[in-house]
Amino acid sequence: MLVSTTESAQATGENTLKALMASLNDTHDIYAAAAQAIQSSLGWRWVAITRFTEARRLEILSFIDRKASLEKFEYDVAGTPCEWVVDSHKFTVFSDLLDSFPEYQALHDMGAKTYAGLIYRGENNEPLGHVMALHDSANVDFSLAEDVINIATIALSSQFQLHDTVSQLHNAEQRMRADPLTGIGNRLAFDDTLKSISLSYDASPNQDWTLAIIDLDRLKPLNDMHGHAAGDQFIKLMASELANMGRQSDMAFRLGGDEFAIVLRTVATPLSIQLIVALSKHCSGLEPICNSILVPQ
Predict the structure, then answer these.
(1) Per-residue pLDDT averaged across 143-148, rounded?
(2) What pLDDT does residue 161 have?
(3) pLDDT score recorded for residue 44
(4) What integer pLDDT is reported at residue 2 of this predicted model?
(5) Are both 153 and 220 inside the same structural domain?
């Protein structure tokens, strides 16, 4: 039976992806899963996934020897087969490692005879690391190795780009929920928190909460007298104290301008006393500002 090269490559790709998905069912470590999938598809003895820590230095993220995980380490690519992969950025093979690298003692100690490697990339086509497979036999199919490793590098690159996209979306969402001046939650975060509390209260009606709205009534005269930089400095001081005055479960928000809110679980002492004590700790360094705001009404 004759099988076309295209059909054979497609079948190899499908089998490699199936092996990768099966490996991911056993571990959430994409590096270990990729190494296991390559070894399952190729049958080569050693498979390693690396990443760059410097331009010509690699860290082993997953290294397996017939499915047994080996210790991770870093190494310089100079004088190794990996140097050729890093320099060429192409699929690279060595059919006789010991002749090609007679002074590379680690290869002699391992008994590795053949090598195949390829760079994988992240966003903007940036090289992130490489995949390499080694075998203790010279009787190997380098064409199959190229197909399998190429599929694995595509999967790794896709995973990294997906991770970067998710991270960017998460960071964007966090920025949307944070006040740009103070870093504490903004009105959007405040509204979401109240919705969450409302839902949790339905499930646990015995849980008490304290909500306080705080308004800096004399912020405008402060800005007029000392400038907006001084006003911003005090707003940040206020936000810092509100964020740190309670427990980890307590939350502070800047609703806009001179208006703040704090959401606390049940408090033992009156909120106003807690606030005054907390703010007083830092008033000495900003005495002119504090005096202009904290004058008794």
Answers:
(1) 90
(2) 72
(3) 94
(4) 31
(5) no
DSSP assignment of the chain equals: ----HHHHHHHHHHHHHHHHHHHHHH-S-HHHHHHHHHHHHH--SEEEEEEEEETTEEEEEEEEETTEE----EEE-TTSHHHHHHHH-S-EEES-HHHH-TT-HHHHHHT--EEEEEEEE-GGG-EEEEEEEEES-S---HHHHHHHHHHHHHHHHHHHHHHHHHHHHHHHHHHHTB-TTT-SB-HHHHHHHHHHHHHHHHH-TT--EEEEEEE-TTHHHHHHHH-HHHHHHHHHHHHHHHHHSS-TT-EEEEEETTEEEEEEE--SS-HHHHHHHHHHTTTGGGHHHHHHHS---
Residue 243 maps to a domain:
yes
Q: Is residue 181 part of a domain?
A: no
- Inform me whether the pLDDT recorded for 177 exceeds 90: no
Beta carbons of 245 and 255 less than 8 angstroms apart = no
Asked whether residue 169 falls in the same domain as residue 198, the answer is no
pLDDT of 6 above 50? no
Confidence check: pLDDT of 29 > 50? yes
pLDDT of residue 120: 92
pLDDT value, residue 202? 73
Q: What mean pLDDT is reported for the chain?
A: 79
66 band by pLDDT with thresholds 50, 70 and 90 = confident
As for how many domains the chain has, the answer is 2
- Asked whether residue 10 falls in the same domain as residue 154, the answer is yes
Whether residue 191 sits in one domain with residue 130? no
Round to whole Å and give the CA distance between 263 and 150.
Answer: 53
Instruction: Confirm whether 59 is domain-assigned.
Output: yes
> What is the CATH number for 171?
3.30.450.40
Question: Which of 92 and 155 is assigned the larger pLDDT?
Answer: 92
